[in-house]
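Exercise 7.
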Amino acid sequence: MTINCKGTLVDLLSPKVMGILNITPDSFFDGGKYKNESDILSQTEKMLLQGATFIDVGAYSSRPGAKHISEEEELNRIVPVIHLLIKKFPEIIISVDTFRSRVAQETINAGAAIINDISGGKMDKNMFTTVANLQVPYVLMHMLGTPQNMQKNPIYSDVTKEIISFFAAQIHKLHQLKLNDLIIDVGFGFGKTIDHNFEILKNLSLFKSLDAPILAGISRKSMLYKTLNISAQQALNATTSANTIALLNGANILRVHDVKEAVEAVKIVNQISF
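Solution. The predicted structure, written as tokens, is:
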């Protein structure tokens, strides 16, 4: 449960919080919010001061139906931001949200520490060998389809079993490549109905059988706000409730827009550690 982030060992037995920094114009909750250096630095500083262990930077919007952008555009958006953050916060641990091996390579070269792949290695055949060669922590996420089509009638016979089978196969490939630090993310909202998402949340502890830390990314997602008939902007309380359930079911990392509340949830759950 310990991962090596550029020489810093992070123990995930005590759950950690990953703050989201979207530098995209169209992400579902905060798209277009952080457009200049001042805004980016201010939001990052806020999340670090509130207790984020990791900052997850994304330059490719993966919301349902999002516009596809080129590799060059993704790199042009994200590499300068990594340089900016490391210059201002030398100890920062940056995770890069990308499914492209070249973006993974160039962002790690720029100073990032973790690769967070929404496609679980399915959208770029070179991703596994790239992260294995880099020997960086890799977040292996499950997604049915692509961001452009994933919510167009996702069907499973048994969603929990099928996702566990997917992980088992992908983990085997990564172990053969001798990747050391692997984290799994069930992919709430990525090719799942609301019912699928809540079934996975209820069964999250079953994924511990895969012997890998679990990242839960539920923050302000439609499974919460559609259930309550509210907006994403109104879904902070629902997010905290879902995050608490995830922690009780074995989540090791919470990926969130609201760091303070997630850190508080971790502290409360830690008081009844099992």
